[in-house]
Amino acid sequence: MRTPALMTDLYQLTMAAGYFRHGLQDKRVSFELFVRRLPEHRRYLVMAGLETVLGYLRELRFTEGQIAYLREVPALRGAFSYEFVEYLRDFRFQGDVWAMPEGTVCFAREPLLRITGTLLETQLVETFLLSAINTETGVASKAARIMQAAGDRQVLEFGSRRTSPEEAVLSARAAYVAGFAATSNVEAGYRFDVPVAGTAAHSWTMSHASEEEAFTHYADAFPKHTYLLVDTYDTVEGTRRAIAAAGSRLRGVRLDSGDLLTLSREVRRLLDEAGLTETEIIASGDLEEHRITELRRQGAPINGYGVGTELVRPSDSPTIGGVYKLVYDHSADRPVAKLSEGKETLPGLHQVYRIKRHGKSERDVVGTLAEFHVDAEPLLVEWLQKGKLVRPLPTLAQVRATARKELAALPDRLHRLDPARPEEAYEVSISDGLSNLIGEVRRQQH
Amino acid sequence: MRTPALMTDLYQLTMAAGYFRHGLQDKRVSFELFVRRLPEHRRYLVMAGLETVLGYLRELRFTEGQIAYLREVPALRGAFSYEFVEYLRDFRFQGDVWAMPEGTVCFAREPLLRITGTLLETQLVETFLLSAINTETGVASKAARIMQAAGDRQVLEFGSRRTSPEEAVLSARAAYVAGFAATSNVEAGYRFDVPVAGTAAHSWTMSHASEEEAFTHYADAFPKHTYLLVDTYDTVEGTRRAIAAAGSRLRGVRLDSGDLLTLSREVRRLLDEAGLTETEIIASGDLEEHRITELRRQGAPINGYGVGTELVRPSDSPTIGGVYKLVYDHSADRPVAKLSEGKETLPGLHQVYRIKRHGKSERDVVGTLAEFHVDAEPLLVEWLQKGKLVRPLPTLAQVRATARKELAALPDRLHRLDPARPEEAYEVSISDGLSNLIGEVRRQQH
Question: What residues in B contact A74, CB-CB < 8 Å?
Fold first, then answer.
């Protein structure tokens, strides 16, 4: 049996063993997960990955095989005591988790998630939490930009072959959260109910004796779903053949190479001349938000876009760089912060208050838990209490609706796709209460 | 039960259903997987991902739940016939696979893998094969560059938090294949026997009342493995405290922020003054091959490097862009090629012949299977025959040895880290036999 219990950095286990040896394993602490700075090409992020995280925390346990391995980790032979490894055998996560719901738009310095529990359990799970939230939030955030470019045109997620098999499934879900219409990844449909969609591949055409035969066979097999890829040999000629083979059954054609503006106009003309005015043109091939913006600006008659590589492996901002930092030592009732230059953290437990005006998000305040801001919406809500779910997990449709509402509430300038000038950034301020606390912690540490 | 059977693009299943409907599902074909062009910042690739692929092909089957889902895929309701879905219920991969062993250095246009089987099975597996090989080969190829920069210094893989949980495990393995000394990812140690290593985190220090106490506790818990992270508050002061707390037990210190050149010199001086001349300095924090090269050129006294983000999410070349193309229709005894501009493929079945001189790789020739090149080493070997393993899987140590030998045999110019000028590229030519075949196919298609 595979469990994710060992999907962690060795030092999490080393530190856990160290805490255990000194009787500190049950000391109660809080960690918060946040992004220090937005990547250059992101004006906001879209929270995703929480469902993965909550599933992991609720299922977390060590198998006999893993326990046996820990007794023998070559790098640390003998460093893990018998008692510590026995402790792990019965380990279950029993902490509390507060987090922004998936689909929430968020910004730098804002805690996306807070976890409170024993030093041992909160430390052990750091790697997985960062891994899931960095990845899925990264994809959802890029997907939101692509949707901004696409406007009312549908975008299909085609990235599976450009990322690892399991990440492909999570990425398909994250893209759907942020507004993509569907994915080609069938497992994402099976596991998460993401709508699946697709056309055909070049190999369909190439495995038939001729393009005509390939198209005729496809239309016969899928009379209600005839989407044909027409660029295997020559896009214009391929379109003529598609029209001849499928006639009124031709629901759509896909273009995957060449000059998409010129070709889409030519293909549209051919389709219209054949009376196929409802037949859609889908474009794919190294597309991202800037290329889609340009095609739309030029009036390319494209009904939908397929996006893959640049969604799952964005070249503009490959990572969002979330971090997970100790903020509170409950045993000592002491807020904690790290002061190394450029890597500062906010001490204490935080809530993010979003202040809206006329339905638009105006600014956020990061404050302490005790604060109250008139007309402000607190973004962090409780999910786990002593390891148990205390709130129903939103359905994927609800998460998607949250993202839609949140993105619509953003000030228009945040939807621009170029890097933000400092004065264009969304305002995230520190409350007076939190400012005072930072000052206190600073004085104590100096 | 989870199986990877649905980790595929919908169109693979759609096309499979289409082939099935027309009785073409058993038609015998070959596909080859290759990279069209090397990414700008790669002078070569290091093959990885084959073990993942072979495991997938050997285990591939559909569960009852997946079968039930396929009967109801909303996008295609009714498009998959009862008989087709029943066929999938008993489906097993029974094709043949030839591929370069993991650790092989490879180049653009060279098939890394060839699969021969029924149209249905070879098409169904495309997505997973690309996914695994693109990801793992991408990481191994970046890792080889980082090792080139690090020379005889050890490099530790610290990327788990910057990629998704399962990809982190595969990435740790791929980095080890290409020469990394160890990983922090414990699951990679458990599953693949990759050596694991680690130090401590800032939270260890922050969860104690003082840095002194934190360091003393760590040295007491791990007297033989005392690696301390010294930059939580002030690196120089932290080093003094580490020396005071651990004394001769101090195996190493890690610097994770600030000016690594200046700090490493200062830290080295303090360690040497305390007689700790064997104590190592490990540096981490957004490192990659260029930064490591610079630190070494400047003589930074750093004994080992930790690399994470830039390994698993390289900003220079985020993807390698492998593709999978139909090359042969065995039923019609017909080589197949795609001719769309910029997306051409090589028709027919290929072998890659590597010509060495004085132990150095001089050039490669992509030829047909029937060819024989004196003193040339054929790189593709058979792994699966009718779905069964016909050659023992190399151990991870063997794969790593292959990579070491292959990298050492590369001409020196290929180890440079800047983008290659055209005249610096490794020579990959097309054999006369293959040139003739390309000409024939071109004439037939035009």
Answer: 195-196
